[in-house]
Amino acid sequence: MQVHLKLQRDASASQPIEPSRASDFATLNRATSTMRTLLKVQRIAKTLGEGDKRNQIIGDLSFDAREGEFLSIVGPSGCGKTTLLMCLAGLYAVDSGSVMFDDKPVGAPPPGVSVVFQDYSRSLLPWKSNLDNVVFGMKRAQDLNRAQKLEYAQELLASVGLTGFERHYPWQVSGGMQQRVAIARGLAARSRLLLLDEPLAAVDAQTRAEMQDLLLDLAKRYQQTCVLVTHDVDEAIYMADRVVVLSRRPTVVAAEFAVTLAKPRTQLETREDRGFLDLRHKILAMIHQMRTQA
Ligand SMILES: Nc1ncnc2c1ncn2[C@@H]1O[C@H](COP(=O)(O)OP(=O)(O)O)[C@@H](O)[C@H]1O
Ligand SMILES: [Mg+2]
Asked: Is the Cβ atom of 223 under 6 angstroms away from ligand 1?
């Protein structure tokens, strides 16, 4: 069955670019200027809460994601990463600025965008089996009949290691397994843009590494543009073509770094690579400095 998205990925996506600070980001912009921008976030601001609980979460924040790019977003805990993702998905309206997907302003949530939420236990439907939860992710897939959807959902559950758990309900499996169902459902949509909020936070270290590789593999196979929010700097670098570092609240983009490490990435070699360690050091030092500047 051929149900994969057929989006063209620009070859320049893998063009080597030296890791650079925001200050010399022009180098990166020049090198990648031929790639189409799929997501454009321009000067957004967002306040949450009412009265004296009113809280400016997002300051004046801008960044782009290009077609086929894997973008990681890191920042100090509580800085507003989930809030940002909700704005990208069109689930929160921004107070000012704009979020454009495929040259159109996002509405809630636009076709072509799918989200794997941080709170996976609340995002899965408890009255549907794991398999039907994944099928639910294909509700907009008019090119597939019910039998094809079931077959594809089964394939996806197998790729996240859940063969044999198709007929179980989410509440009958562990937290890590529920999270994998949520990831399979996010992938089932075959969306052009996949937004992932700490998708691997609840899985053990070994499974986490396997899931990172699986996500990279599937994102490549389905030629998806991914925005991964994580507080784990190692994971952010390992997965990404580019890492966006957020500041404390009200959050803005503190820096962007191109990740030029060879692909396919491997858990041993990539993580021991000098370039990986240098970038890790830079980003961790930056986040540490933000934390201590109380
Ligand atoms: N509905 C809300 N009203 C007021 N403050 C909120 C609301 N939701 C989240 N916040 C606050 O916004 C901040 C950022 O939250 P969040 O986006 O979840 O951060 P992160 O995902 O980076 O940990 C937190 O300090 C949180 O307490
Ligand atoms: Mg969060």
From this structure: no
